[in-house]
Every structure is written in structure tokens, then in C-alpha cells.
């Protein structure tokens, strides 16, 4: 599958969910982020008290950061971002595998 690009207006403050997916044993999905500089991204696996934050990164604005999901077991994964200013966020994703 080719890379898909999405844009979303995100308010500053709390962690905001960009995408919710299910991790699987058959395919990997990669999410690509570049800007805004200083934004924090993460993958949040599971539900409520049983959830875990993984792959925490801070965007620098000049090097693409990648979050990969899949092969972690069958669970819900939220791709989240935290901003210091309200802004439009552009990100991409691509499915790898069958």
C-alpha cells in the first residue's frame, strides 16, 4: 500500500488521538511525522488502566519520526500527539505486509 497523507487541526494541551487501529500479527502499519517541532508523539496500547504508552518521541521539525504498530499482539492502539500550540498537523501512514 502506498503512503497515505492526512491533515488534522489539533488543539494544544492534552494528548489528542489522531488514529485508532488494531495491532495484528499479519501486517505492520507505520506512521510518519515531521512537524511541528517540539510536539510529542506516542503509541498507546490497550484500554484504560491496562494501557501502556510506547514509542514516545519528540518531533524536531527536520527529521521524520516513525511509529510502527503490529506484531505486538491483538490490541487497540491509539496514535497520539501533544502540542504546545493549536495547529494543523500533517502525518502519513503506510501498511507493510500482506
Structure explained in plain terms:
This protein is an all-beta fold and 98 residues long. It has one domain. 0% of the residues lie in helices and 56% in strands. The protein has strands at 4-10, 16-22, 28-33, 40-45, 52-58, 65-69, 76-82, 87-96. The strands form two sheets. A four-stranded antiparallel β-sheet has the order 1-8-3-6, with no helix packed on it. Strands 2-7-4-5 form a four-stranded antiparallel β-sheet, with no helix packed on it. A hairpin with a 6-residue loop joins strand 4 and strand 5. The N and C termini lie close together (9 Å). The mean pLDDT is 88.
The total of beta strands comes to 8
- Main sheet: which strands, in order across? 1-8-3-6
Oligomer: single chain
Distance between the termini: 9 Å
**Overall number of structural domains:** 1
Helix content: under 10%
Overall average residue pLDDT: 88
Q: Would you summarize the structure shown here?
A:
The termini are close together. With 98 residues, this protein is an all-beta fold.
List the keywords.
98 residues; four-stranded antiparallel sheet
Strand and helix layout:
Layout: E1 4-10, E2 16-22, E3 28-33, E4 40-45, E5 52-58, E6 65-69, E7 76-82, E8 87-96
Antiparallel strand pairs: 1-8, 2-7, 3-6, 3-8, 4-5, 4-7
Amino acid at each position: 500500500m502506498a503512503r497515505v497523507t492526512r491533515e488534522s487541526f489539533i488543539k494544544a494541551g492534552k494528548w489528542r488521538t489522531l488514529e485508532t487501529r488494531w495491532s495484528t500479527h499479519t501486517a505492520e502499519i507505520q506512521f510518519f511525522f515531521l512537524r511541528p517541532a517540539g510536539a510529542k508523539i506516542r503509541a498507546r496500547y490497550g484500554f484504560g488502566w491496562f494501557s501502556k504508552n510506547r514509542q514516545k518521541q519528540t518531533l524536531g521539525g527536520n527529521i521524520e519520526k516513525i511509529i510502527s504498530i503490529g506484531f505486538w499482539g491483538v490490541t487497540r492502539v491509539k496514535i497520539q500527539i501533544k502540542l504546545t500550540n493549536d495547529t494543523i498537523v500533517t502525518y502519513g501512514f503506510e501498511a507493510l505486509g500482506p
